[in-house]
Amino acid sequence: MGPRLPRAAYGALLGALLACAEAHETGEPLSGNPSLFRWSLPAGVVPPPVPVDNPMSDAKVELGRRLFYDTRLSGNGAFACSSCHRQEFGFADAKNIPLGSTGQAHTRNSMGLTNVAYQRNFGWADPGTLSLEAQALIPELGELPVELGIKGREADVLARLRAEPVYQSLFPTSFGATPDPFTLTNVNRAIAAFERTLISANAPIDRFNRGDSTALNAAARRGLNAFNTLRCTRCHGGPNFSIAFEAGAPAGDEFANTGLYNIGGTGAYPTRNGGLFEHTRRPSDMGRMKIPTLRNIAVSFPYGHDGSVGSLDDVISNYARAGRLVPVGPNAGDGQLNPFKDRRISGFAISPQGRADLVAFLNALTDSTFLTDRRFANPWR
Ligand code: HEC
Ligand code: HEC
């Protein structure tokens, strides 16, 4: 939650909104003021939390969508959020690791943004980035690596946005005309509002859970069974197939080391990709990454925090042998023996049929309506 703004500055309408948002802080679902914004969600789907100082509105969501797809929001005018977050791939990018606007390589795989707003923290292993508004600053201003490359060019970028007629109406409608609504803070509020609408709830698994027994074929139903029996749900549980999305989960539980590496038998992960360890410097946090959602997983390949796992079949092989074997090269080592591996990764035997079933189940988490929903598509075309 962002800082609270002085309530006196707002009219009765916003007062009501704040009260509504405060109710949310005590655990009640918040939908924003319905007269300002209407979530269109299937029955039973609770809207994500919304910070007190950034209420939803249609204008703001539209502004955020335009900014998300706008290459003017980068230092050299060549890149946008959408360069690395593409709708058809569940807002991931089908690359192992992306390059930023200046060609610098990231060390981690672009994350999908399906139902992103339901999470507590953002990034593969970043316990300190706690809002979407704050997260956007990382690609904008980050220098290690450069993503959008805006640092030092903020004024230029804002001047470009100011010159766009569509923005000349959307910024004041979203944030009021005075003081100057063209700020990076407002840019990020709008982008975050758009990201909060990226809600997927219409995959075959959702239709199955809503009572349509025909939504999953026999293989996917067997796969669902295996997913439960193999206890994938201990980490990928709940409606978003990740406990990182569960409001009640104890902080810290959303990170786990799955034994992808064990360089030289020391438990090490590759440089700059040590997961939670990069923040805490605690050896036992080595390799602990956020448990990602499995929604739209079939289209957000390749897999793992560094995109080093090529297919869902490879993912299953790694779990079956309780860690990945990297036979040769600078990262060689047997992840099965990683001393920091999560105890819940204990291996299992699985038949070819069992694998195919599990993959069929993971495919049933793909929501084609989300991937083609025109409300989430590039509005500049
Ligand atoms: C150069 C490619 C690139 C660009 C450009 C980019 N991202 Fe990302 N995004 C990534 C990568 C890589 C990660 C994982 C970062 C990490 O863990 O360090 C990520 C993570 C995220 C996350 C966290 C998701 C989660 O589930 O925790 C959000 C939200 C996000 N990006 C939104 C944005 C927005 C908004 C923009 C534009 C302002 C943007 N990204 C621009 C590559 C990119
Ligand atoms: C101990 C918690 C835990 C368990 C149990 C677990 N996972 Fe994961 N899963 C993770 C974490 C953490 C990652 C990311 C690891 C990384 O990239 O280093 C992940 C990644 C994945 C990915 C790739 C996601 C992506 O976006 O790249 C898939 C697919 C997956 N798991 C499926 C499964 C299946 C199927 C099972 C059961 C056989 C399972 N997981 C069991 C924690 C877990």
Report on this structure.
By secondary structure, this protein is mainly alpha-helical. The protein has two domains: 7-200, Cytochrome Bc1 Complex, Chain D, domain 2; 231-349, Cytochrome c-like domain (Cytochrome Bc1 Complex, Chain D, domain 2, Orthogonal Bundle), CATH 1.10.760. Helices cover 31% and strands 2% of the residues. The protein has helices at residues 12-25, 58-68, 81-84, 132-141, 154-162, 165-175, 184-196, 204-209, 218-229, 277-280, 312-320, 352-363, 368-372, and strands spanning 255-256, 289-290, 325-326, 333-334. A two-stranded antiparallel ribbon has the order 1-2. Strands 3-4 form a two-stranded antiparallel ribbon. Helix 9 crosses helix 12 (352-363). The radius of gyration is 21 Å and the shape is globular. Bound molecules: heme C (2 copies). One heme C is lined by residues 79, 81, 83-85, 98, 100, 106, 108, 110-111, 113, 116, 119, 122-124, 132, 135-136, 139-140, 147-148, 191, 195.
